[in-house]
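The freezer alarm interrupted the setup, so I double-checked each line after restarting. Inputs confirmed:
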Amino acid sequence: MRLGIDVGGTNTDAVLVAGRTVLASAKRPTTDDVSSGIVNATRAVLDAAGVSPWAVSSVMIGTTHFVNALVERKGLLGVGVLRLAGAAGEALPPMSGWPDDLKRCIGATSFQLPGGYEFDGQENTAFNEDAVRDAARELRRKGLQSVAISCVFAPINRSMEQRAAALVKEVAPDMSITVSSALGRIGFLERENATIMNASLSKMARHVMASFTSAFGELGIHAPLYVSQNDGTLISADYAAQYPVLTLGSGPTNSMRGAAFLTGIQDAIVMDVGGTTTDIGALVNGFPRESSIAVNIGGVRTNFRMPDILSIGLGGGTRIHLDADGQLIDIGPDSVGYRLSQEAYMFGGSTLTASDIAVKAGQANFGNPARVPDLRPGVMEKILAGFRNIFEDGIDRMKTAAADVPVVLVGGGSVLVPNELKGAARVLRPEHAAVANAVGAAIAQIGAEVDRIVAYDNEDRATALQDIEREAAERAVAAGADASTVRLVDVEETFLSYMPGNTVQIRAKVVGDLAVSAA
Amino acid sequence: MSHTKRTLTLEDVADLARGCAFLGSGGGGDPHTAFMEIEAALGEGGAIELIELESLPDDAFVAPCGWIGAPTISAEKLPSGREALQGLRKLEEITNRRVDAVFPVEIGGSNGLAALLLALRSGLPVVDCDGMGRAFPESQMVIFNIRGQQASPAILTDDKGNCVVIETVDNVSEERLARAAAVTLGGSCHLIEYCASAREMKANALRGTISDALRIGRGIRAARENGRDPFHGLFEALRASPHFDQAGVLFDGKIVDLQRETRNGFSVGRAVIDAFGGGQRLEVEFKNENLIARLDGQVRALVPDIISILDRETAETIVTECLKYGQRVKVVGASAPRALRSAESLAVLGPDAFKLPGPYRSIAELNGWK
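Predicted 3D structure, all chains:
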């Protein structure tokens, strides 16, 4: 059976899943060291299910640890940047457009070196071993521990980045190395940004993964350890230790994947109603629809594959503002957040929250509804209608077609949502919805993506698509997928404007189940 | 006669980028990278001076410039920053003349900012004009070609320092050669073409289009900052322009389908937008730029008039490469400059040139705005 863990800012959730059944779940506070919270939640879930640690065949973890480190600028390493680009990009040095405080934190020792490719795979300028060695020596001399290597058009040919990495290793064997080709897409600056961010997290990532491993060792669980990445698929803990940025967006993705699993629905709107906000996303073919705009993390533009999430300011802790006459002024946008259990009326506090209203209206069954003061006639109805409007508007914004769609509710605040909503074919409240994130982690598959530019005038379209799909499948198998289960989930073809020859950018994404030998 | 001359601030450049994106009619590429280059270059010192065409003596020598290639490629292979100046120096060498000022050959999309960077590198002023009034896919679709100016000698330069001098007998050959050379050199090159005396430019160039783009970008931003509808800011700016004064919202809705297909040798795309709550439907067909908009099958806007798809909350333009299912948008139409709507211009850049059903009818006529 699989153990799924979600390490959130407040709680660490654990679930045990066997086949398509959730056996048990547990929620424990997240701890500063992360690992003891994981140990506590895991012990609790094993106890609840009455199973022994050796019954766990694989462990999947989703964590917000690294994204928080970037946003809070905590524990980041100084980074040296080797850019293999010839003269290309001299107009825009590494870390262009970054916030000054983050730049200061990470430093900016960079080298613009010969190398790089053109869109058709030819070399931009020849690779120069001596130049790379000299740069590596300089980084070592400066005492830097981590290097980011970015090469123009690396997504279509990784070999120059690999050669550079090997040379750096020769010169400075202890240096952490991040190559941009491991981080995906065409779009140089955004990919280089991700590479630098990754390099700055590398020491912390090794440390966190080691603490995960020791936590499970302490528990007697010796199953392989995986970490969820932004698109909801898994990477091994070893790989996550090398590429922590791949995990930055896993939170919302896991909750949506969990919702799909718990309901068996592949296409739906998922609403994760938390304490402060509601995150709304669209499931397409069982996966979150990805954001089309550049994702900004800690003030830096990146090209991460992130789910397209609409965050609206209504959650269980949202404050309800009444005037002196007891008439409704506003719903939110402020929230009591995690202090709900002290500040809400129903828990003995003196703040009117969205949860108080839900309880008073009989939509939810927790706390003490008698503690919630009576409202003026008609005010309750007005507030409930306000909730409804906010949720219905959110659904409409995320829908892609006029027809009604199923809406799946997850998260602790989902009691605020009425059972019938405009635009919703039906509203589903699956069992275990409160731990949907951990479920999403537990059921995740292995994925891989390939990004290419192809001219259909020179290369047959069907052959090109086949080649790209095969390469993606090979990558998935290398990452631990069972070859017989690998399937194509997405192909995106974009014709390049102003290029002759029917030139297209193709992205193919495959997923597969964890190979049995690894499970 | 007094001539205004102004120095552009970084905030002006950001506004200009927003306005250029709108005038791109969906094409010309996202000006974001060009903006970042200018930001970096301004940080090293220097100033961008915007001057009026009238302020130049007739015998001044001016150079239109821009980039040729694919935006997707230029987002991966970034410029060295020396391409434009190298081209300018080569032009001066082969013509044996000093260039007095530069300007964007195309105001729409990222090319609207290209001349600013050259101005910073060369110390030359930027003239407040362009040759297209929007974005077009091919370099002969420019008022200078229509009025009989020569594209040659054209200078193409790349990131590595390669330089191609193009001399052709006609302007369509210049476009073909330049594009083929740009592809050979990696798909993203700087191009200086249609260089001429200020006298010729005064007769032909579309004047004030940089100011127009600036006003558009500023109007949208200022409205947002003041809590007003950014579309009001956009339309105030458009109506204040002599070129784009007939403008309005063609449609408000959500993208429900995106299709791409190959037709008549063009790769053509189509965005289908449904009104909220169903009912009416707008279809926008694009080939690099948005070319035609049909409301329930009836044509409502046709190239060369501008058709831009904007985020309905922020009024930021969404270029064709970034259109996605589910986006909530307003489609805005605006008249093309009058010079582009003459019979001789329409033959080069009207519906026929894109193998679209014609004849051209103005956006004002199609929407009853007159």
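Quick read of the result. The mean pLDDT of chain B is 93.
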